[in-house]
Design a protein that fits this description.
Elements (H helix, E strand, L loop, with lengths): L2 H21 L5 H19 L10 H23 L3 H26 L10
Helix pairs in contact: 1-2, 1-4, 2-3, 3-4
Length: 119
């Protein structure tokens, strides 16, 4: 596995851990903010600056960046939730957004390098 793909795999691992905490309701707002900060740091410092060999990956990176910004808004809304039902709705939204991010990462990880198709 290339170094670039390993970074995407690390991002998937963090996303899965975040989603697990959300789905089991074992996560509090401060922990959600910490996990989000870790995701944004990994993406911003390790993945966003990568020069991709495959042009098909760039649109996924753009969408991941957008979804991370939206996730940040979702976490802020969770922080402002006062009613348990509102908090549950916010957690469901965060879980859905994490699922989308995981799907984008899996799509990148499943990309076939362009050189291997030319036989």
């Amino acid at each position: 596995m290339s170094l670039n793909l390993e970074k995407y795999q690390s991002l998937v691992t963090l996303l899965l851990e975040f989603r697990q905490g959300i789905n089991t309701n074992q996560i509090v707002v401060t922990e959600a903010r910490q996990r989000l900060a870790g995701l944004k740091q990994l993406f911003g410092e390790e993945i966003a600056p990568l020069a991709e060999e495959d042009a098909r990956i760039q649109p996924y990176k753009t969408e991941i960046s957008k979804q991370l910004r939206l996730l940040e808004v979702d976490v802020m809304f969770l922080q402002g939730a006062r009613q348990p039902s509102t908090a549950k709705t916010r957690l469901d939204t965060i879980s859905d957004r994490l699922n989308t991010l995981i799907q984008y990462c899996h799509a990148i990880l499943q990309q076939t390098p362009p050189d291997t198709n030319e036989d």
